[in-house]
């Protein structure tokens, strides 16, 4: 009996150890069916610690939070239990049925995979109007608005779209990023640079709100009829007050992720009126001045002059052609050089465009450059206007006489007549010379001669010492990397350090320094500086994930600091962290 009891005890212990040793790695989701305006939480849980965790691609979702990692250990009935979890928060990109593919992890040299999970995304669901519900509170207190300057413009008339993010005084935004950006496919468009987000006070539907202007865009419609301005969509991290309070009585906040959209806007573009439209109208719309000038009105044959046709003013300067000049056939004209000096602001394009012609007369005589006309549509008076230049007479004082069958003032064209030259065609060219001999100078055996011979020999020892020191320095790979990294950090962060006493100027300078550093190291443009793109490029360059996370967190701090107060100590910490992170990246980057 005693022997049987021992056997049973051994079996129980054996089964318990086998059960405990069994590895579990599984994926769990907060829901399998959700609306496109809802969030999905995915947890990857394991009962033993592992390495090389690889999540699925989440290609049909946007990762709005995570990965968050949690580890717990406990003892139950004398048995140790371990649980490690990687959590992600996802926002669906579109409606449909999708599959979350497998995640993988390595535990004790074995590869484990989760099971695929099917997710159904439906149209937007209505959320309960519950004042205690954080999602509802966020939706009621955050609004993205697109303000269009004119809903019924003419073709090629400038309009502006200003995107404003309104935030109630009781809530806050700690992070934001663009999800969908309008493409303006039926417009010529240009974004206006915004130097730092400035918080302003205003009203939304009669209620007091704070707002920031996120984007300003100038549009020139290129088609008539109803045109759609696509919506701008943002993913926000919103700070929402709760009913809980801290030990000092202050209200505690909770964070929720919220997607907001400016919504589509439709404008109706009017065609330019047919009545009174000139035959030479080329599409200029705005308010312009026009002139034709010549750099010379008197010159010799074979010399050149510059003829400039220029339009200045406010309107669609880059979207029409300048009128062409028609000159007498005895004036040789080269293809014009087109120049633009145009700036775009909220009033549209302003500046000047010009065509510069190089003109070379061939014969002696007086040649009139006929008047040139420029027509445009004035949106203020809704009428077509014409501006004509004055006639310019070019007087060629010296040169061969033109005995061509074509009259001197005939204009150039396809029916140009052949030119008959006389024997004095080159008579104006001087053929007499006035040459003088050059006196030779003696250089041999002078002080300069001996100096240029001896000095190179004296410099050889110095060059050898310098070369030896350079070889030692070049061999110090680690030291070189450190010196280069510190130099870069100081160079890019010098402006931020000067502004440590001014919060707004400091964070603007710090963000600019980080962006300039990335542009220099990764050879990318400002438009490519998204969080995902930065992570991808730095990983490809061999930079550690923890360093990349620190770098992106500093960028986020620069954005958040504009909405939240910061102390001198916080700014100094952010500066030190930025300098250290740049130094680490430069040491690790390949």
How would you classify the helix and strand content by structural class?
alpha+beta
Helix residue percentage: 10-25%
Largest sheet descriptor: 5 strands, antiparallel
- DSSP helical segment count: 8
| Beginning-to-end CA distance, first to last residue | 71 Å
Gross morphology = extended
* Uncertain residue ranges: 12-20, 405-423
Number of strands: 30
Question: What portion of residues belong to β-strands?
Answer: 35-45%
Count of structural domains: 4
What's the Cα radius of gyration?
38 Å
Estimate the mean pLDDT confidence.
80
Question: Can you characterise this structure?
Answer:
α4 packs antiparallel against α5, α4 (477-498) runs antiparallel to α8 (568-588) and α5 packs antiparallel against α7. This protein folds into four domains: 22-122, Immunoglobulin-like (Sandwich); 134-269; 286-396, Immunoglobulin-like; 477-588, Four Helix Bundle (Hemerythrin (Met), subunit A), CATH 1.20.120. It has helices at 2-21, 134-141, 447-475, 477-498, 503-522, 531-540, 545-560, 568-588, and strands at 25-29, 33-35, 40-46, 51-54, 61-76, 79-92, 96-100, 104-107, 110-113, 117-122, 142-148, 159-168, 172-180, 187-192, 200-204, 207-221, 225-229, 233-245, 251-261, 265-269, 286-294, 298-299, 305-315, 331-333, 337-345, 348-361, 365-369, 373-378, 383-388, 392-396. It is built from eight helices and 30 strands.
